[in-house]
Amino acid sequence: MDLRTLLTRKLVYVVITLWAILTFNFFLFRIMPGDPTRVLVPRGGTQELRDAIMHEFWLDRPLWDQYTHYIYQVLTLDFGISSGEWKLQEITPNLVAPIINTLLLVGIGTALAIFLGVLLGRYAAWRRGTTADTVGMAFALTFYSMPTFLFALVMLMVFGGELQWFPLKGPYGELPFVANPPDYYDMSIIEKIISRGYHLVLPVIAFTIEVMAEFALIMRNSLTDVLTEDYIITARAKGLSNKAILNDHAMRNALLPVVTVAAISVGWVLGGDIMVEIVFSYKGLGYIAWDAVNLRDFCVLQALFLIMAVAVLIANLIADIIYIYLDPRVKI
Amino acid sequence: MAANLHKRPMETRKTADMRHFRSVGMAMLVVVAIFLMGLALAAPPQSDKTSGRTAQALAQGVIEIDAGAPQNVSYGAPAILNATVIATVEPEESLNFTWTFIDNGTLRTLYENMASFVFSETGVYAVSLTVRDIYDNNASDSTTVTVLPAAEAGASRQFREDSLTTLIYLNASGSRSSPDIVSYVWTFTYDGQPQTFDGMNVSFDFKRPGTYNITLTVTDANGMVGTDYLIVRVLAKPLWVVEHWVVTFIGIPILIVALLLVFNKWRKGSGLITSTDIEKAKLQYKGFRKNWKIFRSNRLGFVGMIILLIFAAMAVFAPWISTVDDPANTQEPNIIVGGVPIQLNPLPPTFSESPYTGIVHYWGTDHKGLDVFSLTMHGARASLIVGIVATAISVLLGTAIGLAAGYFGKVTDEVLMRVTDFFLVLPWFPLMIVLMAILGQKFIWVVVVIGITSWPSTARVVRSQVLTVKERQFIVRAKCVGASDGHIIKTHILPNVLPLIFANTVLLIAIAIFNESFLDFFGLGDPTVISWGAMLEAAYDFDAFLKGAWWWIGAPGAAIVLMVLSFSLVGYAIDDVLNPKLRRR
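The joint structure predicted for all components is written out below.
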């Protein structure tokens, strides 16, 4: 199978899954028990208001019309109108800032987590049985078992509340060593970057350590498996250096399951992101999802769920492509 | 033909009937119409007084107004005086309205079309209205406002039949009136008997379940009477099965399986315990001993298991270990100054023991003065129940789907695996949030939602194991002998697959507990259930660290970490035992 056929097949699969996600998302909010207008209509609303809202949200039409309309809306990136926080505003323009905030946090955090996690796992597996391995794995296991929100909470309360080294909440606004910082929109570009970085430190550390723990565990397991294979003994018998064995023979093979599991655990990564964002009041997608849940703003929730599902789908696609690059056997 | 012949007369008869009815109906309608018209003609013109006067007023070019119907207002609430202009020659905007009445001994005048006024005492007030236009044409009307004492019976309440608190204090201290209220009368029906009580504060023990409409009637010195209502609902004690649904949920399947086993034995005509059974048990015991040895050699796994046993003991014996009986409600007593509760004593969150009750708070109290030690002990229950039941749901679902996909292959496999892949791609954290938001905050939904969001990985593992087992010789032989699919799955595939997914199951429990604490921390869990996540939520909301209450975060936090960690350790250790390849490490 050549590369082009492979990629085409993957893309077709992505499109089908995308359609399935859209359909699932559509029915998830309609099949469920309960009257949607109960949430949308303010208490004591008249029948006319109820009818008008039903009409506005296309709820008075047949299910098929609603479905086609929903698909059309999503394809034109129109997620409807919010009934919660952004009262009766269009959702789409309001989602831009949160998406940027989340991308910053998750992007930096995940990159750091993968890098450090793979390093830690590699180190522990290479020295398995030693004290370094035990300590490293105890560290990883503890953070793997610790709910992200708990770690984030302790970080926030120690470094934000008690020591006051870092700001308590928000994605931007304060500057280090400046008592009365100007409004974010009045800052110069360098100040903006510093402000954002200052606010990102705690969330990124909390997020990175939690996600890193998982990658370290997977990496160690996978590498220990590979290191017991016969071809490692062969390499050793050939008189290769330890570095060559580890980098060229072991790591290349051990990274494959890591990529697969990493793709599957994007859901886990998103969960960690949601927890960190809520604890640090960091206005990203997770924080908004939480707000939408509290206000029962189902339109926003529907949009957010779709965005997150698509993000996972894209992450999976990227993982597949990396897999093809790492494992030449797939191309044959 | 015969059918047609038979049908036609029937039809004609029917239409004839219909015509008959229609004509009778028409006749009746005509009669009624004539009768109504006669009535309308014979009756005197409606409310001749007003319309006659209106005509007169229009003729003379003067004003006609209405001061509104007599009204009753509660004490303290504003009376709305609304003037309606019935007829005027001049434009309405040019009219001057004057309301006059005597309140508290002084003459009051208000100059608005629609005025509101709060009368200072209960009683009957005569209010007169005068309207004048620019040509000094005037008209007047009057109305009465009756100010009644405001009675307040307190908020509606709901209780359970067997709870300790069906003794209800009926409180009317919110009632207001200017001359003091002289009598409070509570009336309601209990057990078919009308009950009447006098006094501002009355207590009554509503033991029987039912809905009680309680009426409070207050009378002031002027003899004015005000009423208010209070609904007290006492719920019947739920059935044992409903209340202990977890026990039922776990117990009934076990019972059914046991009964089936006994039934099978009986059907085969053998005794309950045969020599083959003993042989089997011996073999199993031997295997178990061997595995146990390997498991024990894994120190971390062994420690994890001991911690888990401690947690299990905590969950089972929580009511006996904890220092207070009802940890979710047992607060410290209030400091009372002049009959008014000021604050809890000692001021929570605190680490010191209670000076009144003598309760020692081993791990301090939280913001409401609840005992953290007892709450932590009880929290183990929720975590373990969610962990085990949710995992049972997901393993059942995953095993069923994985078995079907792996064993039957072809289209079944393709379809089921596409579905599994789809659910594997769905971000399950947001999915859990969304499902909880839609379904509502019930404990059972927490369990179900966690269960149905974690099955895909089990399905994948089971499928891959089934695929390897399926190709083995003994399966092919069994097929040749003519064994049915059900028999092969039951006796050959399941026993070979189940041990391998056992380790996966234990790891799933850890994740389920993790998710439960997440849902509770973000306020999506059941608020009536004591859980570690909810304790952490309270600690976060009420700034535990800023108040220096480290125990408040430490106790539940350490409990979650320890429990998840030990489940993970045990899971890895079991994996070690059951997958011999890993042992070479």
